[in-house]
Amino acid sequence: MKYISTRGRAPALGFEEVLLTGLASDGGLYVPESLPEYSAAEIASWASLDYAQLAYRIIQPFVADAIDAADLRAIISDSYAQFRHDAVAPLVQLGHNEWVLELFHGPTLAFKDFALQLLGRLFDYILERRQQHVVIMGATSGDTGSAAIEGCRHCKHVDIFILHPHGRVSEVQRRQMTTVAGANIHNLAVKGNFDDCQALVKRSFADQSFLPDGLQLVAVNSINWARIMAQIVYYFSSALSLGAPHRAVSFSVPTGNFGDIYAGWLARNMGLPIEQLVIATNRNDILHRFMCQNRYEKHELIHSLSPSMDIMISSNFERALFDLYQRDGSAVAELMERFNHQTVAVPDAVFQRARAVFDSFAVDDQRTLEVIRQVYESNEYLLDPHSAIGVEAARRCRRNSSTPMVTLATAHPAKFPDAVIQAGQAEEPTLPHHMSDLYQRAERYEVLDGKLETVQAFIANNISDHS
């Protein structure tokens, strides 16, 4: 399996190199040169597999011979043994053909655990084999940071630097990151928003000369292909539980950076009968505006009750555009260059390919609170604000009531207690037992301005001695 850049000007790489590379040298994102495709009969044969067994079937072709088959099975099994529900990603029914896929049973109570528990173990395996030390640098709008730290904190060959927007994540999200002890773990609260943090990461990957000789950056954000690869699995898992491949399934996905829903797009292209993918977003609605108007343009970022989606520039959308442009890297490169300076539109044929599968809806804070309250009153089921947006978008955009609609519940409601309390008539969520003392744990983080040289100097001066 080889990987190519969405902008068409970077060398093709194998899985091991892509795992440790992040952005391609031409500024693009790596994607598989070709996707494995499965027949309905083959997908049906997976119905009896447990989650880890299914994950191996789906992930192995992307890894190919980079990792021994037995070792890969063990890595995957260990990754999902950490989850607190035997089904790993259980389904809960809200109504007629309406389901919630609970993706918050991992160690940090968010869907990012599915990829980052695996990613940390992949790093450990590859870096131990290479006897190489690397620097993890990532940006988070709330959930990626804690999941990355939890997944990678035991890695012997990494220093971890996670940037989050100062004062723009929930208290639980912040404390999950800043209370983890470890000399190699550094949390940086950057004055700005998530897009500012993400831009600092991308610029640092583009020019790594600030690092000591012999070191390189690796990515834990969803620019890292392995993140996307791991997320494909739960689309297959949930669809199989609901009767696929003999019936189609639709999904509503709360998304800001487009990585989670892009994994659904890939699952569909691999043969899973997905009828509809709904982009669920808050008032930071760049993706919704594109899907409605064919206008891809930046607006000022708005702080919301769903902070994990407070993102204006959706990095992984470039990967989808690459497919929608029928893998024309030069066209994508030209589009992204223009997007840096102006509003862009895509040719009608490209737009119609997107609209054939994707719908979208944007939900403001007031409606988010109403949905949390209404679902609790009718089902005694508590949604976090991101998942509530997913449920509302699913109900607004649903094309076919006979097709099961699955909303991805991306976080545990206890991560966002302020929103749940504001919703009223819903019980205040409590943290799981393993996190019950979170508010008593000591925090460690640095507040920095958003200047590139400030952040890079901090990283260079705080890398552990690995000589």
Main β-sheet, spatial strand arrangement: 3-4-12-9-10-11
Radius of gyration: 21 Å
Shape: globular
Kindly report how far apart the N and C termini lie.
34 Å
What is the CATH T-level topology of one domain? Rossmann fold
**Number of helical segments?**
18
Protein architecture, described:
The protein has 467 residues and is α/β, with parallel strands linked by helices. The chain has a domain at 88-108 and 225-423: Rossmann fold, CATH 3.40.50. It contains 18 helices and 13 strands. The protein has helices at residues 15-19, 40-44, 51-63, 69-81, 112-130, 143-152, 171-178, 194-206, 225-241, 259-269, 286-293, 317-324, 329-339, 348-357, 365-379, 385-397, 417-423, 452-461, and strands spanning 3-5, 30-32, 91-95, 98-102, 134-139, 158-165, 185-190, 217-219, 249-254, 274-281, 358-362, 405-409, 446-448. It has a 6-stranded mixed sheet with strand order 3-4-12-9-10-11, sandwiched between helices. The longest helix is centred in the N-terminal third of the chain and has 19 residues, at 112-130. The chain is globular and about 60 Å long.
Keywords:
single chain, 467 residues, alpha/beta, Rossmann fold, five-stranded parallel β-sheet, 13 strands, globular
Provide a quick synopsis of the model.
This protein is of the alpha/beta class and 467 residues long. 42% of the residues lie in helices and 14% in strands.
